Amino acid sequence: MKFIVAFLLCLVVHSCLSEKVRYDGYKLYKFTPRTAEAVQALVELEQGDFSEYNFWSSVGPVGIPVQIMVPPYKISEVHHLAERVGIDAEVMMENVQDYIDAEERPATYDTGFGWERYHTLSEINEWLVNLRDTYPEVVTLIEVNATYEGRTILGVKVQYPTSNVSQSVFVESTIHAREWITSATTTYILNELLTSTNTTISELARKHVWYFFPVFNPDGFQFSHTTDRMWRKTRVPHSVLCIGADPNRNWDYHWGAAGTSNSPCTEIYRGPEPFSEPSCRVMSEYIDGIADQLLAYISFHSFSQLLLIPFGYTHEHIGNYDKIYQIGLKSAEALAQRFGTQYRVELFTKLYIQLLEAVLIGLKANMERQ
């Protein structure tokens, strides 16, 4: 027994210190459940301890696709499952590593900061410091200490003489470490607010006070660059074998509600208690200090093409739901016109309630068969 424990510990240490994790032969599937039993099976895969399936999007109700990365030695198994419970399977990426390799090849040899390649944590932080130095009368550097691994969470405050402090806007991204496109998006928006000659954008910049935190989870973000491109969580050890919690599910407001897990080895682990993750705790304290000034809080995530509206724990609507919903519809329409992308505007809990209903139906069907 001692040998087994020692061997497992060696594996953990090796995974932390070795070269980059590779995903050769891993396939990305789009699975669409046709039955409640199929939804239940996908939920069990997502929340199972030591699950070897990497969920790129959350499980939804019947008819809503979920994207899952499957290792080569699980492909046969998952096909049998799909046939048995009623899941339509479509391969979206034949070999995930090919896409990772292509992503790491810079599109330009320009060493400056731009939006034609992804940037590291140090490059993003250096760019934020340069903004402070370039626009000293407008940009203030914000340093929030510290993460589990001792990193500072850097952000900036943009405030013009005409900015309305009581209508401040808070923007954050990359709370899930692997969602690199979100920090690219928020830094692009920040740059536009400071440099655009478009009168609509410049008026918007000068109307509000803006807070930008491009990398909300720097420990995880750094690890996703140096070691594992698919890393999503923090880097806080929570068990002998599993590291990290989902920082998006670690806040104290209705902590542990639907869409979370109490297993440290799952991607949606909520942590042992609210604010167990230092990065969440220190950012919460900072946000509390400016909460009475905030008009809007915008959190960027990637992949699912959803514009989600609070709340995430109840079916009740937020006070200004109708206004936010109309803003969401106009935003989705603008995105469709510009890029051809199709975004859905949804209430957070609508997805979870539909999922819960589907799971309960599946459980009832199983019990009746037994």
Question: How does the SSE layout of this entry go?
Answer:
Blueprint: H1 2-17, E1 27-33, H2 36-47, E2 54-55, E3 66-70, H3 75-85, E4 87-93, H4 96-104, H5 121-134, E5 139-145, E6 152-158, E7 164-173, H6 180-195, H7 199-207, E8 208-213, H8 218-226, H9 278-290, E9 294-300, E10 306-309, H10 321-339, E11 344-347, H11 348-369
Parallel strand pairs: 7-8, 7-9, 10-11
Antiparallel strand pairs: 1-3, 1-4, 2-3, 5-6, 6-8
Helix pairs in contact: 2-11, 6-7
Q: Explain this structure to me?
A:
With 370 residues, this protein is of the alpha/beta class. The protein has 2 domains: 27-100, Alpha-Beta Plaits, CATH 3.30.70; 117-304, Aminopeptidase (3-Layer(aba) Sandwich), CATH 3.40.630.10. Helices cover 41% and strands 18% of the residues. The chain has 11 helices and 11 strands. The chain has helices at 2-17, 36-47, 75-85, 96-104, 121-134, 180-195, 199-207, 218-226, 278-290, 321-339, 348-369; strands spanning 27-33, 54-55, 66-70, 87-93, 139-145, 152-158, 164-173, 208-213, 294-300, 306-309, 344-347. It has a 5-stranded mixed sheet, sandwiched between helices. A 4-stranded antiparallel sheet has the order 2-3-1-4. Strand 5 (139-145) and strand 6 (152-158) form a beta hairpin. Residues 1-17 and 355-367 have low confidence and may be disordered.
